[in-house]
Write a structure and sequence with these properties.
By secondary structure, the protein is of the alpha+beta class. It has helices at 3-15, 119-131, and strands at 20-24, 27-36, 41-43, 46-47, 50-57, 69-72, 75-77, 85-88, 97-100. The chain has one domain (3-131). Strand 1 and strand 2 (27-36) form a beta hairpin. The chain is globular and about 45 Å long.
Length: 134
């Protein structure tokens, strides 16, 4: 594992201790089993306050900014399918997933992992998208 990824994974674990990591074909995949979802989100018809969320980064990270995140395929907001989300394949954590189109705003990494853009900032940005609802 690259030193940068090790450092960022350690930072993520300070806030998400159960984060999972896999390195597959030059991409680093992460899964947070219990990410907080705002009110209104459901899996099928069951309201959820937490649900799994996953994302990947490319080999060029951190210069290559992350893009998108994944939720369980049956995630919906008050019964409505989310906009800018589509079925996804190849997610290495099992189950069915949807890929949300989502990009960082002002991605600006620095050599110091705790400064500027990093995976923790990226993960926290998902809450902004989820707060938008469907």
């Amino acid at each position: 594992m690259r030193a940068r990824i090790e450092q960022e994974l350690a930072l993520l674990r300070q806030y998400y201790p159960d984060v999972e990591h896999s390195h597959i074909a030059g991409e680093d995949w992460f899964r947070i089993p219990r990410y907080c979802f705002p009110p209104g989100w459901c899996i099928d018809s069951e309201p959820v306050s937490t649900a799994p969320i996953a994302f990947k980064i490319v080999a060029a990270y951190p210069a290559g900014e992350p893009y998108g995140f994944f939720t369980p395929a049956k995630a919906n907001f008050n019964g409505q399918a989310p906009n800018n989300a589509a079925p996804a394949s190849g997610v290495p954590f099992g189950g069915d997933w949807h890929h949300f189109s989502w990009a960082p705003d002002g991605w600006s990494p620095t050599n110091e992992v705790r400064m500027g853009s990093n995976l923790l900032v990226w993960v926290r940005s998902f809450a902004q998208r989820l707060a938008e609802g469907a």
